[in-house]
Design a protein that fits this description.
The chain is α/β, with parallel strands linked by helices. It has two domains: 3-106 and 195-222, D-Maltodextrin-Binding Protein, domain 2 (3-Layer(aba) Sandwich), CATH 3.40.190; 108-193, D-Maltodextrin-Binding Protein, domain 2 (3-Layer(aba) Sandwich), CATH 3.40.190.10. Helix content is 28%, strand content 28%. It has nine helices and eleven strands. A six-stranded mixed sheet has the order 2-3-1-4-11-5. The chain is elongated, with a radius of gyration of 20 Å. The chain starts with a helix and ends in a 12-residue tail after the last helix. Bound molecules: adenosine-5'-triphosphate (ATP) and 1-O-pyrophosphono-5-O-phosphono-alpha-D-ribofuranose. 1-O-pyrophosphono-5-O-phosphono-alpha-D-ribofuranose is lined by residues 156-159, 172-179. Belongs to the ATP phosphoribosyltransferase family. Short subfamily. It is an enzyme of class 2 (transferase). It catalyses: 1-(5-phospho-beta-D-ribosyl)-ATP + diphosphate = 5-phospho-alpha-D-ribose 1-diphosphate + ATP.
């Protein structure tokens, strides 16, 4: 079954509920607040639930709970019509999905950080070592500056890497700045600012166009005016 057929199957040939892939991460609470202000009710939803699907009371929207790092795969390959994901991941993974709406939630910045007092030029004679969850964006940043770089991909607790000698720098997300401060690091440069976005499958867009447009029109008035930090 190809991508288009999968979308058609999951969407009941252009009818039925729209699906929205969400992760139990930092974007969840604010996304649910926007959906609820727009009038969607999910009677059995609770963040602690082990259920993976939640249908709205009016039957028009179904939430699919997935890992944050899987939202784009669900949307790209037809497991969900839409998803909510940070711009940081969209740019890192460079997937062929549509990105019609900035939800202005989950504001954070992807930065380069170094141990306090070591923000000067990188060591001579070897590539600069950078630990990150964002290997493509980090590599692009250094290559575009003509700096030789060795990337170490980690999945969390990035701030530990320079402390234990694993790296000279980290490329990581900063929201409040608390983690950077508490681990004696400082920001050297900013790569990008990110907020949560609605992403839409390229196959679903033509097949469910009216339903997706109606969904977007319904939530737009409830999107914060300015970007907000999420916890
Ligand atoms: N302080 C923050 N740290 C990390 N991400 C943040 C922060 N603030 C906002 N975000 C946004 O939230 C998104 C989801 O981050 P989160 O750490 O919750 O990951 P996740 O959804 O739990 O993913 P996974 O479990 O697969 O690692 C990020 O991609 C980013 O856009
Ligand atoms: O500026 P702050 O508000 O302190 O937020 C930034 C921190 O939050 C994220 O980590 P997360 O909580 O996802 O944990 P992790 O280390 O397991 O990735 C991010 O990777 C930073 O470490």
């Amino acid at each position: 079954m190809n991508r288009s057929e999968r979308i058609e199957k999951s969407s009941g040939k252009g009818t039925g509920s729209l699906s929205l892939a969400l992760a139990k991460g930092k974007l969840l609470t604010d996304t649910m607040e926007i959906l609820e202000s727009a009038g969607y009710r999910f009677p059995d939803f609770s963040p602690g639930s082990r259920k993976l699907t939640f249908l709205s009371e009016d039957g028009s929207l179904e939430i699919l709970m997935v890992r944050g790092s899987d939202v784009l795969s669900y949307v790209e390959y037809g497991g969900a019509h839409m998803g909510v994901v940070g711009l940081d991941l969209i740019l890192e993974e460079d997937r062929p999905v549509l990105e019609p709406l900035d939800l202005k939630i989950g504001f954070c910045r992807l930065v380069v950080a170094a141990p306090l007092g070591q923000e000067g030029p990188p060591p001579l004679g070897r590539p600069i070592r950078v630990a990150t969850k964002y290997p493509r964006l980090a590599e692009k940043y250094y290559v575009s500056r003509g700096v030789s770089v060795e990337i170490l991909k980690l999945h969390g607790s990035l701030e530990l890497a320079p402390k234990v000698g694993l790296s000279d720098r980290i490329v990581d997300l900063v929201a409040t700045g608390k983690t950077i401060r508490e681990n004696h690091l400082e920001i050297v440069d900013e790569i990008l600012a990110s907020t949560g976005r609605i992403v839409v499958s390229r196959a679903a867009w033509p097949q469910r166009n009216q339903a997706i447009r109606s969904f977007l029109e319904r939530i737009v008035p409830h999107v914060p005016k300015d970007p907000v930090i999420s916890s």
